[in-house]
Amino acid sequence: MEQLMRNSFLFLSKNKALTKMAKKYGLRFGASRFVAGETIELATNVIKELNKKDLCVTIDYLGEFVDTIEEANEMADNCIIAIEAIGKENLDSQLSLKMTSMGLDISDEIVLNNMRRILEAAKKHGVFVTIDMEDYTRCQKTIEIFKELRKEFDNIGTVIQAYLYRTVDDITDLNSLSPNLRLVKGAYKEPAEVAFPEKKDVDDNYKKIIKMHLLNGNYTAIASHDEAMIEYTKQLVKEHNIPNSQFEFQMLYGIRTERQQELVKEGYKMRVYVPYGTDWYGYFMRRLAERPANVAFVLKGMFSK
Ligand code: FDA
């Protein structure tokens, strides 16, 4: 039943008509628990509140799978507006973005142009940029773009997904760049030809890449709400005398909020991923797919109003 629900939400997350409708009608169905608001002003208010609690942020102007040059350029413009707001208000925030929002499905030239514009602005304001990882069909291309840009910029990192079979090889291959990587389990629906179907195998591979990347001496973001992964990391860094300055925990806005605060109190760096914007639908559907309890939350929200 849980698997069926998960697959249904992941299937719905890619529906273009529903995405358009969601943009038109604004934040609904309890999405505001996971999305900071539709404007940069609302997002900066949320960042300020989180910063006050010593939580760092990475902000994400929501958008994915754009198919026109105009939309891709507009997405990049909005990322630059976000970077300028971070700089102007001196916020403790990085930026995250998706390659399909920069024109990945259109051409390499468009993506690279947009990314160079963003990275220049980010460099000027001291903002670090992370390229999110999308579905498997875009993984190779995303890694190639990251490698290309990493030669020119040092304020860029990307995401590696533990559910993919290729991941250990990617960690090994990328090591020569000493990359700052965010490690996640993976949020998309992938076939068994490319990704571990069993959760236990994903968890084992996740631990494996956390260990590899940390012991390679690279900065590591452990982006997970899973207590077992947090505990594993704590033990590992203790065992190998890895300083707190070499890693951080990351969680999504609206998920395990109290735990985020506790980790700060325990002395760890904790970064919250804060999405905002009108293109909230796909992101929201993936969060529902992750956890049936969130669906109950949404239904309660829908019927209690
Ligand atoms: P898992 O899903 O195994 O859950 C373990 C436990 O965590 C649950 O039992 C529950 O206690 C708690 N939990 C998990 N999800 C919850 C929820 N939604 N609500 C409440 N409790 C929850 N993916 C991707 O493919 N590309 C990317 O670029 C990113 N980027 C990214 C950034 C950040 C900062 C985070 C935290 C995550 C991502 N992800 C991602 C998503 C990631 O791949 C994964 O889908 C989710 O983090 C859920 O997996 P967990 O590791 O949290 O554990």
From TrEMBL:
GO molecular function per UniProt: nucleotide binding; proline dehydrogenase activity
Pathway assignment: Amino-acid degradation; L-proline degradation into L-glutamate; L-glutamate from L-proline: step 1/2
Binding positions for FAD per the UniProt entry = 133, 161, 185-187, 199, 224-225
Name the positions where substrate binds. Answer: 98, 286-287
Q: How is the cofactor bound?
A: Binds 1 FAD per subunit.
UniProt-listed Enzyme Commission number(s): 1.5.5.2
Where is each Proline dehydrogenase domain found?
A: 45-298
Q: What class of enzyme is it?
A: oxidoreductase
Alphabetically ordered keywords of this record: FAD, Flavoprotein, Nucleotide-binding, Oxidoreductase, Proline metabolism
Which cofactors does the annotated protein need, by name?
Answer: FAD
Q: Can the keyword Methyltransferase be found in this entry's annotation?
A: no
Q: Which reaction does it catalyse?
A: L-proline + a quinone = (S)-1-pyrroline-5-carboxylate + a quinol + H(+)
Q: Which GO terms describe its biological process?
A: L-proline catabolic process to L-glutamate
Q: What is this protein called?
A: proline dehydrogenase
Source species: Gottfriedia endophytica
Lineage start = Bacteria, Bacillati, Bacillota, Bacilli, Bacillales
